[in-house]
Write a sequence for this structure.
């Protein structure tokens, strides 16, 4: 900091001296111009004037160099601060990603524990349509910029022997996954037969090749590694469904995308 002050101070002093000498030279030239005796000394005045001009330029240049060196420290500091800020932003993004992954892992294990406890508790009942409609409204708002629409075709009478929190977890993951890959249309529907409710979620996206479908149901595996997410969504759905004595499978959707088929015991069954 002392060197910085010294450079700026010396620069200001030299610059001031240059301006002062230049002003004196101009004033002297003006005075000599109106004095008759100056005619005799014209040659001497010209040589002194040239020398004075050189001195003025030298002082001004030296002052400019000193001040530029002093101010360059500010530029270097600003660039270093910008690099630090960029590094902190990258670190913050990395930490946020890690925290999100950890949160998903915690949610995953909590959901498993809750489902294990709920599965042994008779009387757990959830209406599929109520859960689907609430999730559809939320996800349509989240994906509004892409114009995603979710069609809900679920019979109000269809209910499953599942805690509402766990049904929301399963349907939320399936619908969110469909919304990420759809071109614009997602549909959820349900059927019931022999004490089993089958819920299907269809999208019109690119789908998943048949050979990869079992793989993407595993924990931490994503169909596209460049896509956001932890790869836990479908695995959570499958594990929760199995804890409730249900299942999850993947197939081709009618419009060329992916169909997720979630099978759960109907309410009132053992």
């Amino acid at each position: 900091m002392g060197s910085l002050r010294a450079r700026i101070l010396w620069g200001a002093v030299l610059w001031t001296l240059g301006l002062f000498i230049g002003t004196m030279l101009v004033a002297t030239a003006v005075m000599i111009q109106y004095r008759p005796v100056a005619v005799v000394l014209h040659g001497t005045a010209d040589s002194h004037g040239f020398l004075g001009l050189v001195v003025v330029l030298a002082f001004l240049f030296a002052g400019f160099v000193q001040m530029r060196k002093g101010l360059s420290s500010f530029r270097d500091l600003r660039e270093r601060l910008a690099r630090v800020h960029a590094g902190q932003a990258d670190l913050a993004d990395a930490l946020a990603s890690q925290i999100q992954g950890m949160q998903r892992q915690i949610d995953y294990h909590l959901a498993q524990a809750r489902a294990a406890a709920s599965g042994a508790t008779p009387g757990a009942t959830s209406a599929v349509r109520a859960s689907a409609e609430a999730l559809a409204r939320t996800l349509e708002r989240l994906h509004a910029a892409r114009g995603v629409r979710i069609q809900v075709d679920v019979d109000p009478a269809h209910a499953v022997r599942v805690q509402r929190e766990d049904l929301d977890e399963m349907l939320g993951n399936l619908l969110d996954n469909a919304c990420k890959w759809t071109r614009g249309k997602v549909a959820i529907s349900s059927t019931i037969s022999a004490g089993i409710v089958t819920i299907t979620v269809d999208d019109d996206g690119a789908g998943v090749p048949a050979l990869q479908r079992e793989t993407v149901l595993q924990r931490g595996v994503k169909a596209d590694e460049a896509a956001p997410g932890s790869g836990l969504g479908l695995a959570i759905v499958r594990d929760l469904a199995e804890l409730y004595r249900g299942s999850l499978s993947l197939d081709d959707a009618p419009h060329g995308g992916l169909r997720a088929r979630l099978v759960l015991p109907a309410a009132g069954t053992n």
